[in-house]
Amino acid sequence: MQRKINLLLLLFSLLGGGVAFVLGELLLDRRPYDLPPIVLVGIYFALVALCVSIGSVVAETISPKLNGQSWKLRYLGTSWKMLPLAVVLLFGIGTLTEFVYELNFGGIKPVKNVIMVIDDSGSMLESDPNNSRYEAARALVQQLDEDNKVAVVTFSHEASVVQPLIPLSKAENRQKVSDVISSLVTTEGGTNISGALTEAMNVINEDGADRGAMVILLSDGFSQFDTSTELTAFVDRGIAVNTIGLALDDPSGSNLLQDIASVTGGQYYDVTDANRLGEVFQQIYDRLGDRTLLTERSDRAADSPYYAVVRILALILIGTALGLGLGIIFDNRHLARSFSFGGALSGLAAGLILEFALNGDTVTDPMIRLLALLVLVAILTLFTYVVPVGEGRLSRKGRAAGAAAAPADGFPPPRRNRGSKGF
């Protein structure tokens, strides 16, 4: 056995990883047929297995430096037939690890109830003269899933619940909420954030169901508010308050909204132009989405060491499975061992990249996923220089075929005389 590197295999595998990245991003962005995240992640890694495996087999066909010339002559057809097995293996491992990653531990619940708290004070006539906040809120209602509930609270000097929590499982309910938002108008008065959040918590308590909840608070002003005492109920129940500061000239207003988001585990968005509110609500919706191995955690599990470890271990397992799958395709136990060890190490590196580099940004996150994927492929395919490889069939059928096709010393095996009974 020898330490070898097939640079052509490295190149073609990286190209395959690039193709898988493009297809995977289209899959994550469009979510065809509203596929659940478990299936999406499984398909994503199945695409990685498919594209990388095709690149590897093509490279070894052109330059069989790792698996040997005998593989190309005798087992190439078998390798193409085994390729679907690697794809199915990665799909299975991907769905299994994503299933574990989505399990909720430590009282963490997925967000199902969304309470929108919208500032209707007189200052909004200047900061949002076109009522863009209502349009953005209606767009969010249309995007929420059928198992979500939504409520709307408005406030100026006083706060009021204009729409209690209502399930969006029925189309007429979704339209009802949209109509309620469309009927809202800017009023006179100040900015009572304390009363608004009190009403939001009342709405959550009145629901009675043990469901995860999230608040979206939009305001353009400042009010007296004690974050150390008035947010206790939100913190105790793990309810994040995402805050949006619209055209805030007074730094005390933005500081307060940042503090509210920070204390409750939410996100603060600073918006100078009301026309960008639709984009911000879209970002909030994206962060509301399901927890996946491929995206940033934005719920209470964001800083959880448990989920960090699970993600990294999942990528180690996925990398190992990818390496094992390639070994199965080539029907070579030495390559299976080398690629599996390399896959485990590359999975560790990819997991660390995803865990510590993803930040929820729609531009940089795809680049982070691409980097993790290329690192995964590169380390795996280069590991044959660390763990030596040689010819060695995995299957008995392969060994038997090899033995029959390669008689010793170039002479055919002696024929047994079936006609002789005793001599």
UniProtKB/TrEMBL annotation:
Region (Disordered): 402-423
Name used for this protein in its record: VWA domain-containing protein
Organism superkingdom: Bacteria
Transmembrane segments: 36-59, 80-101, 306-330, 339-358, 370-389
Pfam families, per database record: VWA
Keyword Transcription: no
Annotated signal sequence range: none
InterPro entries according to UniProt: CLCR (IPR051266), VWF_A (IPR002035), vWFA_dom_sf (IPR036465)
SMART domains, per the entry: VWA (SM00327)
Domain annotation VWFA: ranges: 113-284
Transmembrane helix among keywords: yes
Keywords tagged on the record: Membrane, Transmembrane, Transmembrane helix
